[in-house]
Amino acid sequence: MKLDNTIAAVVTGGASGLGYATVQALRAQDVKVAIFDLNEDTGEQAASETGSIFCQCDVLSDDSVDAAFAKARAENGQERILVCCAGGGNAIPTARRDKKTGEIKTFPTDQFEWVLKLNTVGTFRCITRAAAGMMELEPIDGERGVMVNTASAAATEGQMGQAAYSAAKAGIVGMTLTIARDLSREGIRVNTIQPGIFDTPAMARAPQEMKDALGKMVPFPPRLGVAEEYASMAMELVRNGYMNGTTVRLDGAIRMQPR
């Protein structure tokens, strides 16, 4: 897909981390970008810094997502690009025994459901809205739009305590090809990036010793990924018209260990 000021994009989770780097990369090509994010303060700041518009959005809510798309389209026109970076997780063992008391505790089901809703359902919610809008467009060079989703190395090598996060990200990987097939007749491509360990704002809160140790786990290069590398891959998936229905690992060849 060509990238210029006639093209509009939506980036969920675009106020920080992988999403923010993708916003910057799109804006560097003069693409009109709408940042979807839950945090109003960081969202407005990110929009101001990048020359984008901010649409407050909770991907857990139909009404919130619908309102965000309506605002984005009123300002920028119908998007031809959707990049889904919104997500999150928790770390809770499936079942564990308290070392002091011996009490057995299980993963709270509501916390498991929340992670699936935030990642898998939230991504799908945005995909369906974007797909419906893109289907109203006339094709350019045979395609109406392109979507890039975000999974995780945890989708295939989840560590201890990541049952919910692994399931949620595996769901994104699992639905990628199916959705690409669903939308193929409409000229809409769908791909997913499966990042390894990246230096994101969430990771920034970790001690430097931990980040150094995690970086050494990566075969090559032995470091954490940086958000600009994710953005570069997202841009290639947008540009390359033959990339469709694919999940691309972006992880320096790491295969996560149990802990």
Automatic annotation (TrEMBL):
User: PROSITE patterns given for it?
Assistant: ADH_SHORT
SUPFAM superfamilies, alphabetized: NAD(P)-binding Rossmann-fold domains
Keyword Oxidoreductase in record = yes
Among InterPro entries, the record links this protein to: NAD(P)-bd_dom_sf (IPR036291), Sc_DH/Rdtase_CS (IPR020904), SDR_fam (IPR002347)
Signal sequence coordinates? none
Highest taxon, organism lineage: Bacteria
Q: Which UniProt keywords apply?
A: Oxidoreductase
**GO terms assigned for molecular function:** oxidoreductase activity
The record's comment on protein family reads: Belongs to the short-chain dehydrogenases/reductases (SDR) family.
Q: What is this protein called?
A: SDR family NAD(P)-dependent oxidoreductase
